[in-house]
Structure formats: C-alpha cells, structure tokens
Design goal:
mainly alpha; Glutathione S-transferase Yfyf (Class Pi), Chain A, domain 2; two-stranded antiparallel ribbon; globular
Length: 186
C-alpha cells in the first residue's frame, strides 16, 4: 500500500510522528502516552494492558469478519467511499470480505478461540467487573491510560458489531463505554 511507503513495515497499525515510525498497537499506545497523554502507569496498568494485548484484541477480527456476508457488510465501514477510486473500492471491499474470514479462522486457531462471541462476552464481563470494579473509569473519576487503551481497541470496531454486542451484554460496560465516548471521542 502506498500509504505505508514511508516504512518497510507493511502491516497496520503504524504511527509516524515526525521522523519516528512506531509499529504494533501496544508500542503505539505506550509511545503516545509517554510523549503526549502522560497518564501515570503502575503495576495495575501493566496487568490490564497485557490483558488487552493477550486477550481482548484477539476477539476483534473473528467477530468483525466471521464469514463473507458479515465481512462484506463491515467493509462498507472499513473502506470508505471516496477513499479510493470507485473500482478499487469495490475490489478492495470484495477481496477483503473473501480474505478476512480466512484470517479470522487462522487467528482463532492460533489463540485457541473456540467460540469468539461467548469468550469475548466473558472478557467484557471481566473488564466491567474486575477492571472497572464499580468505578466510573478504571482511573476512578476520570479515564486513565487503561481506559484509553481498552476504549481505543473497542472504538476501532465501533460500528462493526462487537461494541453493540458488549453493550447489550453488560450495562456496566455500556455505561463506561458511553462515558468514554463522551470524554474521549471528541
């Protein structure tokens, strides 16, 4: 993709900040926090950011691209009209809808996911019950690094199914997500 011509790394996400190129979600999140957000980080932060990297993110692709039909519908949001020419948009959406369910199946096998939806909802309950633990945010009265990290992963698929599913599953999660949306998405 020509959008990644500035780096040899050909997978997203990639962050370019002046001359610095940062790859991989966790590294990008750490970099943004260290250089811009400057949220405090402690051992609880590490426990939850590891949970995000080792658990939460692995459900997104299988939930967004479980089959051709769902993947094709979701590519309407992922590849925006006008992002490419008309023909390239159609081809990318169609090819993506064919390829991504196969990628999703490989990821499920790699991370031993048997039932992506059920396991994801258990993870959401874990976050709401243990991460939030009755607080407005993980950070207490206002969001912190962990809130931003969890919200960032989930907001990346906001219109693609997993967020709606989680909000229907757990009212505590839904309330937290809506607070994050109000606070962070502006």
């Amino acid at each position: 993709m020509k959008e990644l011509d500035f780096t040899d790394h050909k997978k997203v996400p990639v962050l370019k900040d002046d001359d610095k190129v940062i790859t991989e979600s966790a590294n990008i999140i750490d970099y943004v926090n260290e250089h811009y957000a400057k949220f405090p980080v402690d051992e609880n932060t590490k426990e939850w950011t590891d949970w995000i990297d080792d658990t939460l993110v692995h459900y997104i692709t299988p939930l967004v691209h479980p089959n051709f039909s769902t993947s094709r519908k979701n590519f309407q949001y992922i590849i925006k009209t006008g992002q490419y020419g008309w023909l390239k948009t159609k081809l990318v959406r169609f090819a993506g809808a064919i390829a991504m369910p196969k990628v999703a199946k490989k990821l499920q096998a790699k991370y031993n996911i048997e039932d992506a939806e059920a396991e994801y909802l258990v993870a959401i309950d874990h976050w709401a019950n243990n991460g939030l633990d009755g607080k407005l945010f993980f950070g207490g009265d206002k969001p912190d690094f962990v809130d931003c990290s969890v919200f960032g992963v989930l907001n990346s698929c906001h219109n693609l199914g997993p967020v709606k599913m989680a909000m229907q599953q757990n009212i505590g999660f839904a309330d937290w997500y809506n607070r994050c949306m109000t606070t962070m998405a502006n």
